[in-house]
Design brief:
- The protein is 69% helix and 0% strand.
- The protein contains three helices and no strands.
- The two termini are 20 Å apart.
Length: 65
C-alpha cells in the first residue's frame, strides 16, 4: 500500500469518526461507517489491504534495482 493511499484512508477514517461523534451520521449507517473507518485505520497501520491482493492491485511504487 502506497503512502498516498494510507494518508487518504486515515483522513477518511478520521472524517467518519468525527461525523459519527458529532451525531451527523447516526443509527445503522453511522455504525456501518464506523466499522469501515476502523478497517481503514487498521489496513493503513499495517500497510496491507486484503482486497488489493484479491483484485491484484498495488498502490506502492516498485523500486527498480
Amino acid at each position: 500500500m502506497g503512502n498516498a493511499d494510507r494518508i487518504i484512508r486515515i483522513i477518511i477514517a478520521a472524517a467518519i469518526g468525527l461525523l459519527y461523534w458529532k451525531g451527523i451520521i447516526p443509527g445503522t449507517l453511522g455504525i456501518v461507517l464506523s466499522i469501515l473507518a476502523v478497517v481503514f485505520l487498521l489496513t493503513s497501520l499495517i500497510s496491507f489491504c486484503p482486497l488489493y491482493t484479491i483484485f491484484g492491485l498495488k498502490t506502492c511504487k516498485i523500486e527498480k534495482e
